[in-house]
Design a protein that fits this description.
Arc Repressor Mutant, subunit A; 23 strands; six-stranded mixed beta sheet; 666 residues; D-Maltodextrin-Binding Protein, domain 2; 5 domains; five-stranded mixed beta sheet; 25 helices; alpha/beta
Length: 666
């Protein structure tokens, strides 16, 4: 029995998949199978039960797994002690990284390390792939590595988030796109492009992101692939090309002839990882806990880890001093090494049908923004049970919430974005397949505004009491519908006012000649559009009930139970969209461009933080407020045809584990 056999066995036991273990260890599946069979033959007992489409540990396998961990930890401890004895305050540290990381970002730390520890030599080795870097670390050919790829599934390594990476489009300052503040890859397919070869750290992220978005290399009219940064700069400065790279590779573009432009498909930062062997895990825990300087007796690698951690912790402490209205700091997901490899299995097809309301501005961070930025595709799970899945992502836009509620109840939609009144309607129990759960809020307005009643400028109707015997045209089942019901109940007019369903959006209605006695109710932004065109005046643009307004994410219960990871990934996309909205200077102008609604009107609907003097604004919020929902139920359930609200069990309907899991993963 060899140590390496046990390491292979533990990886298979961890993944419960020969295929995934092979990917993680950079071996072929037959090699993995041969190692396990050899070990089983030596022990004269099976270690795994081979089921139809999966494997599981036998009882003997479970015993061996527990004992193997101890053996490997003991081996690491012995190696570490020998290194400590041999090196002491001298010795050599071997560091591995992509050449671009080594040439720029890493050079600062190497200089700082050599100045502090002149007796320790540093050897830098560059790699052309993350796989070869990880293999060298596992084989102890190098002591520490740096990569944009996470190796969490490699049981022999520890990855530590040590910095962040931004991805940009780079052009020469004289290029016709140089003055753009924001660009999309899909709009630039006919331009001349230059990207790095596999020697570039950004190449795998680029290829992975294109795969997620369904863009092929062949879709680009002209795509040059170069092996060096120098050659890339030549194409950019002399050939009028567009380049893709990270700020690790082209960090000194400021003040040079190059301009960096943010990319719509790369809206968030990514992580840079420091990779170290597993046997330094104990030292790492002590280092984080003590926050003291490394002792003179520590090894060269421990000194190096300590230096980088101190710099990292200083940067994080400075960030924490800056108050952020959105405490989560999501990053782009790191591509798996096997992400682009085709599975030999027949792909399972999973349809994801999301009902959105892209014109309802308060919900843009749940529908329009993640759709435009491609964040839903990015965060979808693609490992383990989803390794060979083929997704059919359908974002279906609606002008109001009622058809989304019906779609959820009829098993025609899986996820819906709804305002407060239709959100409560979705909680109705309509058969087992039509049951829903509330997993998250999207936006809130603590003052409860966002819906309004408007009349033509020359209307004789001046007060709500004048509504007696009149018709109000409104989108049935919308949050505006709920507001009108509460307002009529407040003035005891429920039996005296007729409600008529609006069959077209207010954007069309306001341009149609109407009788001066017409009355409309709608939600944002449609009543704002009517008012700003100076054709309508407000009859009610406030909150008589004292209830806050909110919108949320409702999921079919059956879908959430079958694919919980997909629900979590969608919420991750919303977290990323909200962070982008709150931290991107050009966000407002882009939302205006995508919705064809002026920034002036948007500024009357959206905000980033709650401000009493601007209480009509919606702000992003993910946490579900059960007390707010209960307040809505209390006021509505006494209105005819709303008795069903009494049967809603909020404790069962509200399930916040999904958003908590998404926030933790981000």
């Amino acid at each position: 029995m060899e140590i390496y056999q046990l390491k292979v066995f533990l990886e298979v036991a961890h993944c419960l998949s020969f295929t995934e273990a092979a990917y993680n260890l950079n071996l072929t599946q037959p090699a993995i199978t041969a190692k396990i069979k050899s070990l089983e033959s030596e022990l004269n007992t099976p270690l795994f039960n081979r089921l139809r489409r999966k494997i599981e540990l036998t009882e003997v396998g479970k015993i061996l797994a527990n004992e193997s961990v101890k053996i490997i930890e003991l081996e690491a401890e012995v190696i570490n002690k020998i290194q400590e004895f041999k090196q002491g305050g001298f010795g050599t540290i071997k560091i591995g990284a992509y050449s671009a990381i080594a040439d720029h970002w890493l050079s600062y730390f190497l200089y700082k390390y050599r100045k502090e520890y002149p007796g320790i030599q540093t050897q830098l080795q560059t790699f052309s792939s993350s796989e070869s870097l990880a293999k060298s670390l596992t084989n102890q050919d190098i002591d520490v590595g740096f990569s944009i790829i996470s190796f969490k599934e490699n049981s022999n390594l520890i990855d530590i988030k040590i910095d962040t990476v931004n991805y940009y489009i780079f052009v020469h300052k004289q290029h016709k796109l140089a003055d753009k503040k924001w660009l999309s890859l899909r709009e630039l397919l006919n331009y001349q492009w230059v990207i790095g070869s596999e020697n570039f750290s950004s190449r795998l992220m680029w290829a992975s992101r294109l795969s997620e978005l369904g863009i092929k290399f062949s879709d680009f009219k002209q795509l040059e692939i170069v092996d060096t940064l120098g050659l890339m700069k030549t194409y950019l400065t002399q050939g009028n090309y567009i380049g893709f790279a990270s700020d690790l590779e082209l960090p000194s573009y400021e003040g040079s002839n190059l301009v960096a432009i943010p990319i719509q498909e790369f809206p968030l930062k990514a992580n840079l990882f420091m990779l170290i062997p597993k046997y330094y895990e104990h030292y790492l825990a002590v280092e984080y806990k003590s926050k003291t300087k490394t002792s003179k007796e520590s090894t060269p690698i421990e000194k190096f880890i300590s230096l980088l951690l101190n710099v990292f912790q200083e940067k994080e402490s400075k960030k924490s001093e800056v108050k952020d209205s959105f405490t989560l700091n999501p990053k782009l997901k790191q591509p798996r090494l096997n992400l682009l490899q085709k599975s030999t299995n027949k792909p399972e097809k999973i349809a994801i049908r999301i009902g959105t309301q892209n014109q309802t501005i308060s919900t843009v961070t749940a529908g329009l923004i993640p759709q435009k930025l491609g964040l839903i595709e990015h965060f979808l799970p693609r490992s383990k049970r989803y390794h060979s899945v083929e997704y059919d992502l359908q974002l279906i836009d609606f002008s109001m919430g009622q058809p989304i509620v019906e779609g959820l109840h009829n098993n025609e939609l899986d996820i819906g974005i709804l305002g407060d009144y239709p959100l409560l309607q979705s909680a109705k129990t309509i058969g087992s397949s039509g049951q829903t759960i509330l997993v998250s809020f999207v936006a809130i307005n603590p003052e409860g505004t966002g819906n309004a009643i408007v009349v033509p400028q020359k209307s004789q109707i001046k007060t709500l009491e004048d509504l007696q015997g009149k018709f109000i045209e409104l989108p049935f089942g919308s949050s505006a519908h709920g507001m009108v019901l509460r307002a009529l109940k407040h003035f005891d007019l429920l039996a005296d006012v007729n409600l008529y369903p609006m069959n077209q959006s207010m954007t069309k209605t306001v341009n149609t000649k109407k009788d001066t006695s017409s009355i409309y109710a709608h939600f944002s932004p449609f009543h704002e559009l009517a008012h700003f065109q100076d054709k309508y005046q407000y009859l009610l643009n406030g909150n008589l009930s004292g209830l806050p307004s909110f919108s949320g994410i409702v999921v079919r219960k059956e879908f959430a139970e079958t694919y919980p990871e997909i629900v979590i990934s969608y919420l991750q996309a919303i977290i990323g969209a909200q962070y982008w909205y709150l931290n991107t200077p050009s966000a407002f102008s882009l939302i205006s461009q995508w919705t064809n609604i002026s920034p002036e009107i948007l500024s009357h609907i959206l905000s980033s933080t709650y401000q009493k003097e601007y209480s009509n604004l919606f702000i992003p919020e993910l946490n579900v407020r059960q007390d707010w929902i209960q307040s809505h139920i209390d006021q509505l359930q006494s209105i005819p045809n709303h008795e069903y609200l009494e049967d809603i069990s909020l404790q069962n309907w509200i399930q916040t584990d999904f958003i908590h899991a998404a926030a933790t993963m981000n």
